[in-house]
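S1.2 Input.
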Amino acid sequence: MQIYLDHSATTPTRPEAIAAMTEALNHAWGNPSSLHHWGQTAATTMETARIQVAGLLNAEPDEILFTSGGTESNNWVLSGIARQYETPQHLIVSSVEHPAVSEPARELERQGWRVTYLGVDRAGRVNPRDLQEALRPDTVLVSVIYGQSEVGTVQPIRVLGDIARSNGVLFHTDAVQVAGRLPIDVQQLPVDFLSLSSHKLYGPKGSGALYRRSGVELLPLLSGGGQEMGLRSGTQAVPNIAGFGVAAELAMQELEAEAQRLTRLRDRLFDRLSSVSMLRPTGDRTHRLPHHVSFCLTDADERLTGKAIVRQLNLAGIAISSGSACHSGKLSPSPVLSAMGYSDTLAKRGIRLTLGRSTTEADIDWTAMVLKQILERSRSMAEAVRSRRTCQRSP
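S1.3 Output.
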């Protein structure tokens, strides 16, 4: 049995998106900037996708800028705002951002910008009062992730955006994990920028989008031919964009029913594993992505890290992921779990199981059973090791 439970990392490209890409490769291969028939066929394909992606957010089509993915969209916002100022200003981000936001923020810090990293509670949520208190006269941008990919926590984006807007500060959110899983209406949501990624919602890799509210200035990240309304130069990847558009439209059509289904499966998995004392749920159980289950391992053999669990489940045909990182062969604590107050030991023991369109109740039940067996075997081995050590120390 093969079970894929790593949909927050990527999703399989759905057949309808592949069909749209194939159609574009065969019949819309022209340069969309060209004025002749072949170019305009490609341009029509691309603008249809722009309408489809805009529909997912209830945005205007000209507020959608196509990019290569969420990382570019996030970098573009921070860079495109910062370069409008001759002298460094103040930026606010949360302490649980994806590296596509936190690393550009650190780069700006090295250039002299002042950066405030908002703390979070044990569930990974930002307290709106902390944002209010962090604002300064020179604050020009706030960026807070909408749905945290590692622990599943959904931030109070509406409240945070209202605070930023009432103080005349631009607000950006990385919505890569939320788009297609929870409703997003930018007519109601007080955001100026919002990042999307195609491959998180069953579209192809290599395509994403940045929502930019009409009238908000943003400097280009790339210079050249002036594509994407003069803001992102470079010939657009029309086939990828076509696949993204179809995936976005279908995600919108299926969103309500699929979110309910995934929430039921998510809660079923939490329930199946609730009796396992070695598993401590992470993130906010109430304000949570519908497809997301995460834990850290407690009372475990010190060798049993999150990555070790990933490997053992992979041998059983089950794909999950771990939040800790490996650099030069050394396992590092998860920055997200560390920001949430977990010790370095526990922050190396995070695991994430993220569900998707193909996930069934049988998948959930089988995964819970296999994970329990792995953990029980690990506990028994750890107890045996401790027993041998005790015997060796005895006179």
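S1.4 Remarks. The longest strand covers residues 292-297.
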